[in-house]
Design goal:
This protein is α+β, with helices and mostly antiparallel strands and 114 residues long. It folds into 2 domains: 1-56, no CATH class; 57-114, no CATH class. 46% of the residues lie in helices and 16% in strands. It has 4 helices and 3 strands, in the order βββαααα. The chain has a 3-stranded antiparallel sheet, with helices on one face. A hairpin with a 6-residue loop joins β2 and β3. α2 runs antiparallel to α4. The protein is elongated. The two termini are 34 Å apart. The mean pLDDT is 75.
């Protein structure tokens, strides 16, 4: 991975809501912070609701991917896939389960209505 980059987006959590008259859009993505900052407005297209929901889930998906990338700590990938100790399969299984739970939570956020 490269050098650590500064986050340059509106901090999450974000939420999607219906707002037919807002800037000519049908769905609005807002920060859930007290400011309620508008992040995006989805135009009146057939996929506007799904697009807004997916966009609102973006900070959660980024956080999930970062969490998944950290599973296994500082061990290089070859140590995680080629280890042969007595508990290695059990540890890898635990890591996979954790990764799946994190990923599923992000998928749920992106695909289900609030």
């Amino acid at each position: 991975m490269g050098t650590k980059q500064e986050v340059k987006h509106t901090p999450g959590d974000w939420g999607a809501s219906t707002s037919p008259d807002y800037w000519g859009g049908s769905h609005v993505v807002r920060s859930k912070l007290p400011s309620g900052l508008v992040v995006a407005v989805m135009t009146k297209l057939p996929d506007a609701e799904d697009n807004a929901r997916l966009m609102a889930a973006s900070p959660n998906m980024l956080a999930a991917l970062k969490s998944i990338a950290l599973i296994g700590g500082n061990l290089p990938d070859d140590r995680l896939t080629n280890a042969t100790g007595p508990k290695d399969a059990e540890l890898r299984g635990g890591m996979y389960v954790s990764a799946r739970e994190i990923a599923r939570a992000a998928i749920t956020k992106a695909t289900e209505s609030e």
